[in-house]
Amino acid sequence: MRRSCVNLADTTNPLRCRFVAVPVTTCREETSAPSTTTVDAAPRRLGTAVAECVSVPIDSSDPSGVSDNPSDSESADRGAAGEGDSNAPPKVEAAKAAPSAKDQARELVTYDEDIVRKFATASVVWGLVGMLVGLWIALQLAFPALNITRYFAFGRLRPLHTNAVIFAFAGNAIFAAVYYSSQRLLKARMFSDVLSRIHFWGWQTIIVCAALTLPLGITQGKEYAELEWPIDLMIAVVWVTFAVNFFATLRVRREKHIYVALWFYIATIVTIAVLHIFNNLAIPAGLFKSYSIYSGVQDAFMQWWYGHNAVAFFLTTPFLGLMYYFLPKALGRPIFSYRLSVFHFWSLIFLYIWAGPHHLHYTSLPGWASSLGMIFSVMLWMPSWGGMVNGLLTLRGAWHKVAEEPVLKFFVVGITFYGMSTFEGPMMSIKSVNALSHYTDWNIAHVHGGALGWVAFMSFGMMYWLAPRLFQAPLHSKKWASTHFWIATVGMALYVVSMWAAGITQGLMWRAFDETGRLQYPDFLETSSRLIPMYWVRALGGTMYLGATILGAYNLFRTWQARPKTYAPVTVSVPKMLVGKGASTAAFWHRKYEGMPLVFTILVALAIIVASAFEIIPTFLIGDNIPRIASVKPYTPLELHGRDIYVREGCYNCHSQMVRPFVDETVRYGEYSKPGEFIYDHPFQWGSRRIGPDLHRQGGLRSNLWLYRHFELPTSTSPGSVMPPYPHLVTESVDWATIQKRVGTMAMLGVPYDANTLNNGGAMARKQAEEISAALVTEGGPTVPADREVIALIAYMQRLGTDIKAKPAAEKQASVPATSAPVAATGGN
Amino acid sequence: MSELVSNMTPSTMTEIALILFVIVFVAVTSRVMRRKARVQCDEAAQLPLFDDTAGEAGVSARRS
Questions:
Q1: How far apart are CA B60 and CA A641, in angstroms?
Q2: Is the ipTM of this complex over 0.85?
Q3: What is the pLDDT of residue A19?
């Protein structure tokens, strides 16, 4: 049977002799000798994988992929006996041909392709779900009637979108990349198939738990860390499983040098573990409720140390690792500069950790932390562009290939967007720029440039490259892949540009003063209503992007449909044991350390921990960072419950609670927010977006009746508002016993409740609720039973920001001021 | 520990961190940019291309 080989640089044709002992650019006719002899024709060197030739017919009418070649039939037999992926051939097998001296030093390894197929498929499926939810919430902002029931209101749905696209879509793509590339770079099958499958099924279970709990309002109220403590524990277990599997594979590798992509994977695994554990430290107050051990300023700091480094070490480093492997594979040439990758890696992982405070400029975070975050964020531009430059210059002399190959189109535009986002990010980290951009849609534009451009495009490029190899069938349509690319690019451009316009428009409107020295737009609603047309454009862009993704998913599905009945195993011949220490002749210290993965991992951990410690330790140990205010007291039990409702409904997704020390903000909202006001806020709720106005000085600003009407139907008090209605707050009852328990948990966290509150919290809450209920009637409102949730939420709203006006010596009263008429607003929101 | 940290101003800590980083960065860069390192780096860069295939062109480019 004829065995022909085609150019291995052809990225989409899998019907080639995959394991050829021939030069990359030429092909040879089959000789009558078995493949092992063919393979041995070339001199072998230590550390080189020698391929057994698995012959695949180029005649597509023969789908079996089996040749007459005796040694090939061994692989085929293994494959046929395998009956699909569940009975994978044995991991390692001695060469069956008569062993030569060279052969005795080698053994066969079969890569686990099935796990890669699983993760890749999961990524595509969850990507569609996550993007669909994204489109839904985008449409909700332009068309609020889409806030259907409490479960699918914007506040509960937005976290579902962010978690789905980050952890489900990007997460599964990362794992597909890691499992595929690590095995090949290490020349070893994954250490344990069982751990691989625990990792896969565990991760999908976590995603399903997220999809169920988030719409139910079960949330910790911290961005990208919303999942409650039982799911956090699951994440920790699954992550450790992944880590053990990965590091154990490193140990049994057959290639001494740890390629740069693997460094990025190591950094990801180590840092995500540290971030996840420390940011999610909380005390449970029930099976589905917990309170962060941190509060106020410290919680904000921990949250954004985590939040920015989730971007760094979940959305950047693993995708850089992906780039360093899949781009050379797709191009058939090595990365532009390996040396550049060495120092950009170490710079990146050290500098990134510091960038967190740039999410908190001009808030109550201490100024020194803010400045540190800014400086290091600006420095971060350099190692980030090191990665971009390395990727793009790999294409020098090969740019013509981009026009022919959709995979390369995705990679090139993906890396370009990485460059754009990592320039825009440092720019937005500059305090004066941030003064305009913070809380606006500019942040949304920035995030989506990175997410749609870098993360998603690199994932799609990888999927298109992987699919023919994983499914052992040609890509169904290169033309469709190209169409996917173009529609997604246009959609992305619409998205980002409309959000830039929206962000800058709203930011400028907030700070505009007229010629009389008053706010140009005193009514906050005017600044968000102005953005609606831009929200429609964004929704159009998002629709195009989702539509293109659906086309891509269908293309991959059709490719999968053409798969062979049984997948041929991917088997290579590798050295039996690791090259001895004396093998490399040059004393290259970095290579020496890379040959010691444990040491390397420790150095990575040291880099991120030292960087973290320099910011975190002063935040916690320097008391001056958070000056105490004597008049600030804990929330009453009813107010605490109201706060829990605020967190549950995800109000922080639209409302901030942080008045910045700017003239326009103090005129609009009142006194700027002091760090000492938040010491009992477990978790903090400063927010990062103002689709609605800031609420920190809300207390006493409106009557109870106004607030009641606003929650029941926002447009009744604020025509044109896009806020969802919350009628269930008027019908659902409070559980007084739960209130008592939660007060106790807060006391455990150090909130100084007195003995009376600790013992009678439920009764105190009920009493305060009855007073508010009576006040509602006095104000001309309906009779609302005291045990309704809306009463608790009103109590919380009326407390916000009022402590600094209270006399320190005064006893904090359980009742709240009930006003019969709206208090004249300073800024008119 | 608390006293030590309290007596340090944030700018001191920043300076220490920056100096540490610059030292590490210069060390890494200087080692990597040595002539000997180039050869090993060029070889290492080939790794993805020869992970499950072996071509003679690639084989001859890699030296032990």
A1: 71
A2: no
A3: 36
What is d(CA A745, CA A737) in angstroms, rounded to the nearest whole number?
A: 13
Rounded to the nearest 5°, which phi and psi values hold at A577? -135, 170
Cβ partners under 8 Å of residue A818, min gap 6: A703, A704, A771, A772, A774, A775, A778, A779
Distance separating alpha carbons of residues A43 and A39, to the nearest angstrom:
9
Please give the residue that has the higher pLDDT: either A63 or A294.
Answer: A294
The amino acid at A644:
D
**Chain B residue with minimum CA distance to A325:** B48
* pLDDT above 90 (res A807): no
Smallest Cβ distance to B48: which of A42, A325, A342? Answer: A325
Least confident of A52-66, A131-145, A232-246: A52-66
- H helices then E strands: how many in chain B? 4, 0
Cross-chain CB nearest to B46 (options A44, A334, A366) = A334
Tens of pLDDT, residue by residue over A156-194, are 999 999 999 999 999 999 999 999 999 999 999 999 999
A403-451 tens-digit pLDDT:
999 999 999 999 999 999 999 999 999 999 999 999 999 999 999 999 9
Pairing of strands A290-292, A571-575: unpaired
- Nearest by CB to B6, from A366, A611, A622: name it: A622
How sure is the predictor about A551, in pLDDT bands with cuts at 50, 70 and 90? very high
Question: Which candidate in A349, A588, A600 is best for mutational testing of the B interface (most B CBs within 10 A)?
Answer: A588
**Do A586 and B45 make contact, defined as CB atoms within 8 angstroms?**
no
Sign of CA dihedral A482, A485, A487, A493: negative
Binding-face residues of B in 13-42 toward A, CB within 8 A:
13-14, 16-17, 20-21, 24-25, 28-29, 31-33, 36-42
Is the bond into A366 cis (omega within 30 degrees of 0)? no
User: Quick one: average pLDDT of A16-27?
Assistant: 35
Cα distances (Å, whole numbers) of residue A449 to A383, A452, A471, A489, A734: 19, 6, 31, 10, 42
Q: Which residues contact A613 (CB under 8 A, 6 or more apart)?
A: none
Residue A86 has pLDDT above 60, yes or no: no
Q: What's phi and psi for A50, nearest 5 deg? A: -100, 130
Query: Mind listing the pLDDT tens digit for each residue in A484-523?
Result: 999 999 999 999 999 999 999 999 999 999 999 999 999 9
Assess contact for A478 and A485: CB atoms under 8 A.
Answer: no
How far apart (Å, rounded) are the C-alpha atoms in residues A819 and A779?
Answer: 8
- What is the domain partition of chain B in residue ranges? 2-63
How many A×B Cβ pairs under 8 Å?
157
Residues 6+ apart with CB under 8 A from A486: none
The predicted model gives A231-243 an average pLDDT of: 97
Distance CA A776, CA A772 (A): 6
Q: Is A585 exposed, middle or buried (0-12, 13-18, 19+ CB in 10 A)?
A: exposed
Of B14, B33, B55, the CB nearest to A23: B55
Half-sphere exposure of A747 (CA within 13 A, CB side): 16
Give the distance from CA A39 to its chain's centroid. Answer: 44
A249 CB neighbours in chain B (<8 A) are none
Q: Return the residue of B nearest to A53 by Cα.
A: B53
Strand order in the sheet with A571-575: A92-93, A106-110, A571-575
